[in-house]
Amino acid sequence: xxxxxxxxxxxxxxxxxxxxxxxxxxxxxxxxxxxxxxxxxxxxxxxxxxxxxxxxxxxxxxxxxxxxxxxxxxxxxxxxxxxxxxxxxxxxxxxxxxxxxxxxxxxxxxxxxxxxxxxxxxxxxxxxxxxxxxxxxxxxxxxxxxxxxxxxxxxxxxxxxxxxxxxxxxxxxxxxxxxxxxxxxxxxxxxxxxxxxxxxxxxxxxxxxxxxxxxxxxxxxxxxxxxxxxxxxxxxxxxxxxxxxxxxxxxxxxxxxxxxxxxxxxxxxxxxxx
Length: 274
Ligand SMILES: [Zn+2]
What we know:
Family: Belongs to the FPG family.
Structural class: alpha+beta
Number of helices: 6
Bound molecules: zinc ion
Helix content: 10-25%
Mean pLDDT: 92
Binding site for DNA: 94, 113, 155
GO molecular function, one term: class I DNA-(apurinic or apyrimidinic site) endonuclease activity
Order of helices and strands: HEHEEEEEEEHHHHEE
InterPro entries: DNA_glyclase_Znf_dom_DNA_BS, FPG_cat, FPG_Glyclase, FPG_N, H2TH_FPG, Ribosomal_uS13-like_H2TH, Znf_DNA_glyclase/AP_lyase
Pfam families: Fapy_DNA_glyco, H2TH
Shape: elongated
Low-confidence stretches: none
Distance between the termini: 29 Å
C-alpha cells in the first residue's frame, strides 16, 4: 500500500513533467473508482494548466492555474500508482485515467483494486471535509514530542494505534509506526497516556527519521516514473521489525514478536522495546 513516502516520491517524480503544462486530452477508461470520476473531469481539465503540486497526508493535490479553476485531489488507495508514460505507449490493464500534456507526457493512473480516486477538491484545502480534520504533517514543525505528550494524557489506548491516528499526526502507517517505535525503544502495547514527555520526544524524532529516510530512498527510484516497467514509487527498504516476526532482532538477536493492536499486525522486540 502506498504510504506517505511513496506519495511524496510520486509528487517529486511527476512534478517536473506536469507542472506548468497544458492538458490537451483526458481519457477515463474506468470511472468507477472508490469515488466515481467526476462527470465534468474531462471538460474542465482539457485546455487547463497544472500549477504547483502539493501533498497533504496521502492526498496529492494538483491545482489548475487561474483563479477559481479548482484543484484535483488524488488518492492512491491500496494499490494505485501514478507515472509518466510517453505518447504512443499503450495502456495496460488497470490503467484507468490518462492526462495527456502538451509536449507528449502522459500522467497515467494505474489501480488494480480501485480503492484510489481522483476528484475535485471541495473548495479549499482548509474547507475540504477530507482534509479539514487532519493532524499536522510529520515532517513539519507542528509535529513534535510535546504534541504527542499533550494529546496522549489520559488515553489508555496503546501507543501504536495512537500514533497511527490521523488526528494526532498524518501519514504514519503501520510500517512507519512499527519502525519508529522500535527506534525509540517503546513497546507498541504500552498505554499512550503512560509514556513520558522525554520518550515522546524520542518517538517524534524516530518518526521523522524513518519517513525522511524512506523519502530519500524513494528519490533514488525516481527514474521509474518514466520507465514502462515496475511499480513506480514503491520501494523496498531495510526494515528492522515490520514483516519480520519470528526473525532475529537486528539489535539484540532476540526473536521478534507479533501482536495485534487496533486490528493491525504489530511486530516488536520484547527485549529492546519497553
Ligand atoms: Zn531486540
